[in-house]
Specification:
By secondary structure, the protein is of the alpha+beta class. It has one domain: Nuclear Transport Factor 2, Chain: A. It has three helices and six strands; from the N terminus they run H-H-E-E-H-E-E-E-E. The protein has helices spanning 3-22, 26-32, 49-59; strands spanning 37-40, 43-47, 70-83, 86-97, 104-118, 121-135. A six-stranded mixed beta sheet has the order 2-1-6-5-4-3, covered by helices on one side. The protein is globular and about 45 Å long. InterPro entries: NTF2-like_dom_sf, SnoaL-like. It holds the Pfam family SnoaL_4. This is SnoaL-like domain-containing protein. It comes from Williamsia serinedens.
């Protein structure tokens, strides 16, 4: 698969993930990661649609408008296409959240993903959530707030 279609398909998948998460569509996020291994700091915690949806529902606060009131900004995707059907991807993210006093940065980090082609489309084969470099006030975002760094 040529580099341009791979880049386009992979970045589209990254942004689709962020849009669904910001909409509070945990079922839609789980669909994207249904066959992916889920890792935290290199340790696999499981796989499957049910695990992903439960992981999000147990961790992320949904507000009265049905969303987490966040905006995940995905940036600097570094895509290494191994062959026509496999790629490793590192992307930066910044999570912004609306609050009564304005928007603020909740978290910054990067994801490590492995993506593969299935039926002509890129999909997640694994995602590592453990690379967090900054945590702000998560009291309105996560059920178990993290200590600000």
């Amino acid at each position: 698969m040529p580099r341009v279609p791979a880049f386009s398909g992979i970045t589209s998948l990254l942004h689709d993930y962020a849009r669904r998460l910001d909409a509070g569509d945990f079922g839609g996020v789980a669909d994207l990661l249904a066959r992916a291994e889920i890792l935290v700091s290199g340790t696999e915690i499981g796989s499957g649609r049910g695990l992903v949806e439960e992981f999000l529902r147990s961790a992320v606060i949904i507000h009265a408008d049905g969303t987490p009131r966040t905006r995940h900004v995905i940036a600097q995707p570094a895509i290494d296409v191994a062959d026509s059907s496999r790629a490793t991807v590192r992307s930066q993210y910044t999570v912004l959240q609306a609050s009564p006093v304005g928007a603020h940065v909740v978290m910054v980090g990067h994801h490590h993903d492995v993506m593969t082609v299935e039926n002509g489309a890129w999909r997640f084969a694994s995602r590592d959530y453990g690379h967090i470099t900054y945590v702000g006030d998560t009291s309105r975002h996560l059920r178990a707030p993290q200590k600000p760094q």
